[in-house]
Amino acid sequence: MNYQWYPGHMTKAMRMMQENIKLIDLLIELVDARVPLSSRNPDIDGLGKNKARIVLLNKADLADPVYNGQWMDYFKGQGAYVLEINAKTGAGIKAINGLVQEACREKLERDRKRGIVNRPVRAMVVGIPNVGKSTFINSFAGRACTRTGNKPGVTKGKQWIRLNKSLELLDTPGILWPKFEDREVGMRLAFIGSMNDEVIIREELACDLLGCLKELYPEAVPERFGVDWQETFAETLEEIARCRGCYNKGENPDLKKAADILLDDFRSGRLGRMTLERP
Ligand code: G4P
User: Fold this and answer.
1) Distance 88 CA to ligand 1 centre (A)
2) How much is the average pLDDT of 28-53?
3) Closest CA to 214 of 204, 202, 224, 229
4) Distance of CA 20 to CAs 176, 217, 267, Å?
5) Which residue's alpha carbon is nearest to atom 31 within ligand 1?
6) What is the mean pLDDT of the chain?
7) Alpha-carbon gap, residue 233 to 82, rounded angstroms
């Protein structure tokens, strides 16, 4: 199967990113902790050079805790400021304020030398679709925040969320285009649901996922569905359909239904906390 993102989307996202990046001091990049490399767009390194950088391993609740730790070390080793978070519950988010101060220390120092004091750091959240940018902005900003700009008589243009006296966040996240360096990357993005499911043949995707799970978490499928690994992944999917009572009209196992169940179970963490890429 061919995993795709359209060039038109990419051009638009690139243009927006170039416009917005000029306005900010700090980039807060979200990646999916289950696939921290495939859910990253390395072009951000070029776009965001000279900006302070924070990497957030989001959806850490769905990823394998052992590898969350290893990925934290990996990104730290690359000179990034890193945290693992759950944007949905807000777990881990409190520590960000301290991290912002650390990541922006040089800039704050430079400002002080120029006599600029009390100018808040301006930050933008970036990431590929579905990594949790909007969820993160909502939990981080909470309800107590003030939105600035675009009020009658106030500055026209971008909306900033004032989080505290030292930090403002652009209220629209920067969308990065996924980078399909190879088929594996596209496939992993499809597993986590970061690709339009309409262009995907779900039975094929499910078989690819079974391949990945057999290699990395061989116990998970037998434990969850009570089936043994079969000769082929299509046969294993058939077994899952039988176990779950999914049949077509002709009494054949409904592979599409079984694929939906498998993918939903994986995406929601019901198959267990899993990390599909290893540092
Ligand atoms: P985006 O702006 O980057 O495109 O992503 P968005 O915030 O819309 O989040 C995409 C999905 O990921 C949402 O689920 C959201 O709830 C979920 N999500 C975000 N952060 C986390 C996290 O840390 N842990 C978990 N488990 N899920 C997270 P959805 O199914 O689209 O919506 P909903 O059913 O949760 O409302």
Assistant:
1) 7
2) 93
3) 229
4) 12, 41, 31
5) 130
6) 90
7) 37
Q: What is the mean pLDDT of residues 36-64?
A: 94
Query: How does residue 176 score in pLDDT terms, banded at 50, 70 and 90?
Result: confident
Query: Which two structure tokens, joined as six digits, stand for 11?
Result: 């051009």
Report pLDDT digits (tens) over 186-205: 899 999 988 766 678 999 99
Task: Give residue for tokens 């390395």.
Answer: 42
Give the atom of ligand 1 at the shortest distance from the alpha carbon of 59: 23
Amino acid at 223: E
Quote the ligand 1 centre to 4 CA distance (angstroms).
21
Please name the residues in contact with 212: beta carbons below 8 A apart, sequence gap of 6 or more: 188, 191, 276
Give which of 59, 121, 50, 53 is closest to 84, Cα–Cα: 59
pLDDT number for residue 33? 98
Q: Measuring from each residue's beta carbon to the nearest atom of ligand 1, which residues come in under 6 Å?
A: 58-59, 61-62, 86-88, 127, 129-135
87 C-alpha vs ligand 1 centroid, how far in Å? 8
Nearest atom in ligand 1 to 86's CA: 23
Question: How far apart are the C-alpha atoms of 102 and 108, rounded to whole Å?
Answer: 10
- Neighbour-count burial for 165-194, b at 16+ CB within 10 Å, e otherwise: eebbbbbebbbbbbbbeeebbbbbbbbbbb
